[in-house]
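Quick one: structure tokens for this chain, please?
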Amino acid sequence: MLWLLSILLFAVSVALLRHIMRLRRLLREMDAAVRSERRLLPEDSAETLQKIGAFGLVNSLNALMDAHKAASAQTEGYSSQVEAMLGAVQEVVIVFSEDRVIEYANRAAETLFRDGRAIKGLRLEGVLRSLTLLELLEAATKAERTEASQIRIEHDSGTFWFEASCAKVKAVGTKGATSTLLVLHDITQLKGLEVMRREFVANVSHELRTPLTIIKGFAETLIDDEATLDPRARLRFTEKILNNAERLHVLVEDLLTLSRLESRPDQIEPIGQPIAPLLDEVAENYRPRLDSATQTLVVEVDEGIGTVLFDRYRIHQVLDNFIENVFRYAPDFTELRLVAVLEPGSGMVRCSVIDDGPGIPEKDLPHLFERFYRVDKGRSRETGGTGLGLSIVKHIVQLHGGTVWAESRVGEGTTMSFRLPVQA
């Protein structure tokens, strides 16, 4: 009986040992599967796993790995979507760690700070070139969120203004750590418009003040000295009041025209039509004002010009403005030419008003189409100019889809040109 018991114990020991070896192998396989984040495919058959009571554990582990993979894929998908969205926005977005190392930067940030090159992994101090911005980020590291503040950043291509805001966010991969999210919203254009608005208000105030002061002064004189003023002085003062009232009227009309063109571009109604009849009509209107002995007005139109898209009334206004400026500021011209030329390959017609007057200094040419800009300020006011005519011209031409510019040499004359699209 003893030998039978010994054999039985040996058989049980061998079975137990094999069972333990299977469990150890299964545990190693489970450990490898978890480390590599994959499903467990055990060497033992399902029947063997069932015998050792591990079949349910393997199924549970595989179900857990499937859920983990699905969650990881979903998270990666969300991350890719978020990164794509942040990359597409115009705002500058930067995330940096507590050590001031950049963890993420979108394309706008890379373009602004390193001309499109990657800045991830670099330190803030080596990338940002604004002391004000660095001071803002220093304050942001001590607070959960900062109020939006305006900062200026100098760049090779110019000066940019941004509205900057920061917020603390959870760091990725490090438990308990935080990162800082920096968002820069470009307000350069708004700043420019704000400056333009201030300058415009100042210019309008100045332009209105002069005639109003003259009107007020002469009106007070007429009232205070009514008994002593002789009829000739009274007539002269009344004429001064009327002339300056007319000047105010023209200024207000030009301001209203500018406002209408800016707020309602649909006022322009381009219609396909030939350009030559308009140039001939404009020329006929001004020929009576020529000195027949010394001055000529010529119209030159390319025969190849077909139908041009333009609003007849508005382009007539443009040509009137150009020609009036010639009579006003270059009255001693000998030849005035109205020219229309088809520009090959561009689908545009170039219209020009060319004179051989005294010309315009080169430094003034880039500013001619700005509001209230005058080459000779004193003379412009004497001749009744408001300084808005060429600005109105610019708006009209741009609403036609064209461009306007001036060319001139002192002593050789001036060419004022604009382009209009040809009807396809």
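The chain has four domains: 15-80, 89-186, 199-262, 266-421.
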